[in-house]
Design a protein that fits this description.
By secondary structure, this protein is an alpha/beta fold. It is built from 11 helices and 7 strands. Helix 1 packs across helix 2 (72-82) and helix 9 crosses helix 10. The structure holds guanosine-5'-triphosphate and magnesium ion.
Amino acid sequence: MCGQQLERTCTVCHAPMPKDVAESDVICVALAGARATGKSVSIGVMRMFLEKLVEELGSSLDYEEKYSETDENAEYLKQMVTGRAYSATPPSIARSLLYSMGQLNGRRRYLALRDIAGEDLEKDSQLNLSFLGRADLVIFLFDPLAIQSIRDALESLLPQQGESGGEPQRVLQTVLRHIGTGRPHLAICLAKVDALQALAQQDSPISPVFANPGAAMTRESPTRRANGQVGYDEETAQVLSEEVRSALMLLNGTVIVNMIENPATKVILPHRFFATSALGDAANGELLPPHGITPFRVLDPLMWILNQKGVIPSIS
Ligand SMILES: Nc1nc2c(ncn2[C@@H]2O[C@H](COP(=O)(O)OP(=O)(O)OP(=O)(O)O)[C@@H](O)[C@H]2O)c(=O)[nH]1
Ligand SMILES: [Mg+2]
C-alpha cells in the first residue's frame, strides 16, 4: 500500500470518474454529425433547458468540471452572453462533459455528453470512437442547410450562412461503423428546423409540410401532465417521428432512413426522428440571431432517453 489516494478511472480512456459512479445511473449521450450541423450550439442550449428541467424534477444540475475535458463556461455558455457563435470544435478530442443531476426518481444520476468534431467523422480519423457503441443515446444531426436546393430557396430569406459540412449519409455510415455491435438508442435530428419553417410561405416542395399548422413539427413539445408534473408525451413523440421521417425523405434523405431501418448488419437500433432548432433563427456569420436565441424542441432527444431510463414518467 503506497498510501496514496486512488482515483477511479475509465478502463478505456483512463479519464478520472466520480467515486460513486458504480452505484449511480450514468446516462451517456454522444452528439454526432457532419461539420457545422449545430452539435456544440445544441449542447450549450440543451444545458440551459436541462437545468430548468432538473430543477422542476426537484434536484439540481451541476457541471462536474473536474471530470470534464473542457471549460463549459468559456466554450458552451459564453456565446449566450456574448452573442457570438462557436468556432468549429477542434478534431481528435471528442470532448466529454459530465453533469451531476443529483437524486432523481430514487437514484443518483449523472449525464455524460460527448461532443465529436464533425471533422473527425468526415475523414478517417484515428480517434477512438468506440464509446458510440456503449452510449445510451447517439444524437445524429442532419443539417437541411447543407442541401443546395434548400440553401438556394432560402437565399433571400437568410443572412449569409457559413460553409456547410460533408455528406450526411457518409457521416452516418461512419457513426454506425463505430457503433458496431453496440445497441445505443439513435435520435436522428432534422436540425436547424427554423430554416425549413422559414420556407413555409415559399414555393418549395417542402413548404406544405411547414405551412400545416396541425403538424407536430411546427409546435413545441408538451412536457407536462394535466397536474403540472413534468413528463414525456410518447404519443406526440411518435407522431413527430413519423412527420420528420417523411420530411427527411422529401429532403433526399431516403438513404438515411434506409440505413437506419434496413441496416447492413440487420440489427435495427431503437430509433426515433426529431426536429430541433438550437438557435430558433439563422445566425448572421459569427453573430447569433439579433433577437437572441429562441430554441425549438431542443431537449426532445434527451427527454426521450430520460423517459426510457425511468427518470421522467410518460404523460400519455
Ligand atoms: N439556422 C440555424 N443555424 C444554426 C443553428 N444551430 C447552429 N447553427 C449555425 O451552425 C453553425 C455551426 O454550429 P456548431 O454548433 O459549431 O456546429 P458543430 O456541429 O458543432 O460543428 P463542428 O464543431 O465543426 O463539428 C453555428 O455557427 C450557427 O451559425 C440553428 O438552430 N439554426
Ligand atoms: Mg462543434
